[in-house]
Amino acid sequence: MHKIILLLDFAEAYSKNLMRGINAYSKEFGPWIFCRMPLFHRETVGMEGILKWALEWGADGIIGQLYNNEIEKIVQAGIPVIAQDFKERFTEIPNITGAYREAGQMGAEYFLKKGFNNFAFYGFNNIVWSRERAEGFEAQLRLKGHKVHYFEHKKSRSTELWFYKPSSLSRWLKSLPKPIGLMSCDDNQGQHITEACRHVGIRIPEEVAVLGVDNDEMICDLSDPPLSSIALDAEKGGYDAARLMDQMIRNGTSGYYDIVVKPMQVITRQSTDIYATNDDHIASSLKYIHQNIDKNLHVEEVVRQVPLSRRALEKRFLEITGYPIYKYIFNLRIEKFTQKLLDTDMSVFEIALDMGLTDSKNIARQFRQAKGCTPSAYRNKYMAGK
């Protein structure tokens, strides 16, 4: 029965999801005993105090957020440790890290598919998960001939409320070409952007479409409008980290490896629920499609929203979006279906009904056509270890 110290930010959704995965492994192969140690211990008693407690308690391992400059003390203590790379990756011990560049690429592709030609990134250049997300975002856009506008700050991520006041951030947001797709390094910074935009009267998503990372539902829903975000498979990361910890306790720490948390998909909310176009008829059509995608929407209904013939609308729609209307509806429906598949416990039949579709077999067939596997196989793939 392993005794594990968890030194994590228990208020963050990312840490909570890691813990769900760790707990799932514990229930399957344990049970383990956990000491949930608040992060203020790291600040008040330092690494010496944490190690002293760990040795007195008889801890078998530590999973948590640690400072890079204190790692030698942990290694010398001989306790198996897995660190969350909340600043920079560690070289001496295994990390719970992320496919950060992959998340940035996903954000870039998302905005490209929505027709944006202007792009921005908001984050920290001195933190690995922000820096590499920016690198992936920019690299993908450079392939398409686009540049990225940057605003990088070094203010505290939690204690300062500077973004509520007129500031250099406000001036930067006003100076950006519009419409623009803006990716923030995480949901906290995404909400900073939506607050700053609201303060200076910049419309979201019409002028600035904002995308975060982590899919922290509390923060995303607090944002006005609700914040779109890239969901991460952190629960699987927690499960995999617990498995590695088990191996290190049983077999020694020499054969360690990093745990890489992968991005899953973009969860679209109102902050990006728009298509970037100056064509009023296409904009009206797209707005109608997005507002009614949870109904059994047909092309004829879209055509009735604008004073154009079906042929004329179809031609302009294809020229601007790159898709026929039916295909755009299909893609968006699959995106919404996938979101419900991962966010709820509803069956395929129940999700189909929830989206106004009467033929669940047909949507399952369409899903397999788009994703290459059945809905149940997709759910199992991304929910493994949860």
TrEMBL record:
Q: Where is the HTH araC/xylS-type domain?
A: 283-381
Source organism superkingdom: Bacteria
Is Transcription one of the keywords UniProt gives this record? yes
Instruction: Give one GO molecular function term.
Output: DNA binding
Repeat in keyword set: no
Q: Mind listing the UniProt keywords for this protein, alphabetically? A: DNA-binding, Transcription, Transcription regulation
Extract the Pfam families matched here: HTH_18, Peripla_BP_3
Which protein are we looking at? DNA-binding transcriptional regulator
Instruction: State the organism of origin.
Output: Dyadobacter sandarakinus
Show the taxonomic lineage.
Answer: Bacteria, Pseudomonadati, Bacteroidota, Cytophagia, Cytophagales
